[in-house]
Amino acid sequence: MTESFFDIDRKIIEIAETAQNECGEMFAEIDKTAEYNGQKVLSAFIKNRVSEGCLKGTTGYGYGDMGRDTLDKVFADAFGGEDAIVRHTFVNGTHALSTALFGVLRTGDTMLAATGKPYDTLEEIIGIRGEKGSGSLKDFGIGYIQSDLIDEKYPDYDEIARLAPKAKVAYIQRSRGYSLRPSLTVDIIGKIAETAKKANPEIIVMVDNCYGEFVEKREPLSAGADLIIGSLIKNPGGGIASTGGYICGRTDLVERCADRLTCVGMGKEVGCSLGQNRDMFMGFFFAPQTVAAALKTSVFACRFFEKLGYRTLPSSGEKRTDIIASVLLENEENLMAFCQGIQKGSPVDSYVTPEAWDMPGYDSKVIMAAGAFTMGASIELSADAPIREPYAAWLQGGITYPSGKTGVMLAAQEMFKKGLINI
Ligand SMILES: *Cc1c(COP(=O)(O)O)cnc(C)c1O
């Protein structure tokens, strides 16, 4: 029992048990999706004849790397794309997104951000922040237009239809990222794609799929997107891949992205896999279950903190399309204690105390709790929070549900211990 391993107040344990019991229906739904997606992935492995040889790696040029080429096909089949490029040499999700944008856009083209301002790290790539001459899309003569979300929530379909004829790419961000706007379901992404394509049949619909993979039964490619892009230290790496990213979708577009990642004319045919194939295969195989663990942690955390009197986004009962939840903690003391409690429940670095610091690019201090096997992996239980209104902690991950649940309980315990919650 939990009581014997951790110093958690009996009342907190009771509230947690009640909260967990109330999550039964949501958990059953999550399990169903994980079973469906697990079968989808397994069948992609079988169809593409993944063999023991695929798990080994190449060195040097990497010509004829069977594992690398098979992994691309497995991703493509599971995500409903024609082709994919899955590489440990994508240094992060931003790099994969940047590769896709530079791969597809040319001088004179315009990018339309269809769901408001994209994730922070994209700003310098686009050229809406940073220095002239840095090599942004803007420096290469690529234009940028934006359709904001209405009330910071809903896509502005009229505006998207009006702007689409001017654009080569319609760019959609599925996850909330670190904003308070809702994440976009695959259905809504489909509606945006349909709207953009009706106004401009040539437009390329590109989706930042970070944090979204395997949360629903469908991925955006089956709803009209042409390319999806993500990070392997989030959902599709299953908590096992040590680094990397993917781009998946239309063959001609994947080829352009591959030429951008390596060299024009070489594309996907080069790039040794070193020892990474096995972890990437295994991670993708585990991913539907890992995502289910993260989702259960998220639903539980929301229910539990709702019971403690806090608002969460999404609420515990809301349908998910990514693994992120924000807990609105109302003041700095709560926020600090919450993050420090999460850290105490980490399998790695549990003994360190996270502090708020001035992170480059932010206008307020930021506190981050993460004790992960893979540095910065946010499929593992982690919490980040800028110290400002509305004092929200962005919580994500949990590669196993029991450890995720324990981390969340320890966050509450830390608040309780400091006299911040009355129960
Ligand atoms: C994580 C994330 C990215 C990429 O971030 P990296 O830290 O570079 O992997 C991009 N968009 C969204 C919405 C994300 O959540």
What does this structure look like?
The chain is of the alpha/beta class and 423 residues long. Helix content is 39%, strand content 13%. The strands form two sheets. A seven-stranded mixed sheet has the order 1-7-6-5-4-2-3, with helices on both faces. Strands 8-9-12-11-10 form a five-stranded antiparallel sheet, covered by helices on one side. It is globular, with a radius of gyration of 21 Å. It binds pyridoxal-5'-phosphate.
Mean pLDDT level:
96
Strand element count: 12
Assign a percent range to the helix content: 25-40%
Structural class call reads: alpha/beta
Order of helices and strands: HHHHEHEHEHEHEEEHHEEHEEEH
Number of helices: 12
Uncertain spans, ≥5 residues at pLDDT below 50?
none
In the sheet with the most strands, the strands line up as 1-7-6-5-4-2-3
Kindly estimate the percentage of residues that lie in beta strands according to DSSP.
5-15%
The span between the termini is: 21 Å
| Small molecules (ligands, ions, cofactors) in the structure | pyridoxal-5'-phosphate
Query: Could you tell me the radius of gyration in angstroms?
Result: 21 Å
Principal-axis shape: globular
Major beta-sheet overview: 7 strands, mixed
